[in-house]
Amino acid sequence: MESYVSIAYLNDFVFCPRSIYFHHLYGKYNPNLYKQKPQWAGSYAHEAIDSGGYSTRSDVLQGVEVYSERYKLCGKIDTFSKAKGLLRERKKNIVRIYDGYIYQLYGQMVCLEEMGFKVRRLELYAMDQNTVHKVPLPHDAPERWNGFLSTLEHLKSFSLEAPFKANPEKCKRCIYSELCDQNAYVEFA
User: Fold this and answer.
1) How far apart are CA 98 and CA 93, in angstroms?
2) Which is nearest to 48 in space by CA: 149, 127, 157?
3) Phi-psi region of 76 (alpha: psi -120 to 50; beta: other; left: phi over 0)
4) Mean pLDDT of the 47-58 span
């Protein structure tokens, strides 16, 4: 039986493929051991969604678990307006729109569509800035769609033994950098 991939891993994998391994190592432990300020801010930002308190509208799905048999994906959406066909992913703060953010939306979209919903618009919402960023649908951005598919395949076949080139800028921001034997960031005192 082939296992499912968490939609959230798409963003994590784009940031650093090795981070998923460390996330699993820490997964059973108290989050106070490894989460840093940005991760806690993101968790707090999703509380209204996770508790179902974001919207009382019956046509808005919030925090719903979704899955795709075809792509072997599963996870949760933030919000989906059935009336508008609008799928929105909320982020605490958006400085730059990373491919991983878009791949998360694409993953959520394929799950919703396989479950019978029609997604007509994709958006990222930056809570701190109170701004909306429109994301093109796959048929309007085939290179991004191909990137999503490629990333999904790489994620499913990733091995820690595979050749890896660390990115010092990413390592600097990684909550697992102290554990990683490939850490490329060295802090000088």
Assistant:
1) 12
2) 127
3) beta
4) 59
Which residue type occupies 123?
Answer: E
Interior/surface letters 23-46, b for 16+ CB within 10 angstroms, e for the rest = beeeeeeeeeebeeeeeeeeeebb
Q: For residue 164, which phi and psi values (nearest 5 degrees)? A: -145, 135
- Is residue 124 within 8 Å of residue 105, measured between CB atoms? yes
Q: pLDDT digit string (tens) for 11-28?
A: 988 988 888 887 777 666
Query: What is the pLDDT at residue 30?
Result: 58
Domain boundaries, the chain: 5-160
Q: Where are the beta strands (DSSP E) in the chain?
A: 5-6, 60-62, 65-68, 73-76, 79-81, 86-91, 121-126, 131-135
CATH number assigned to the domain with residue range 5-160, chosen from the 4 options 3.40.980.20, 3.30.479.10, 3.90.320.10, 3.30.420.130: 3.90.320.10
Collapsed DSSP state (helix, strand, coil) of residue 154: helix
> What average pLDDT does the segment 67-96 reach?
94
Q: How far apart are CA 166 and CA 69, in angstroms?
A: 33
Q: What is the pTM of this model?
A: 0.81
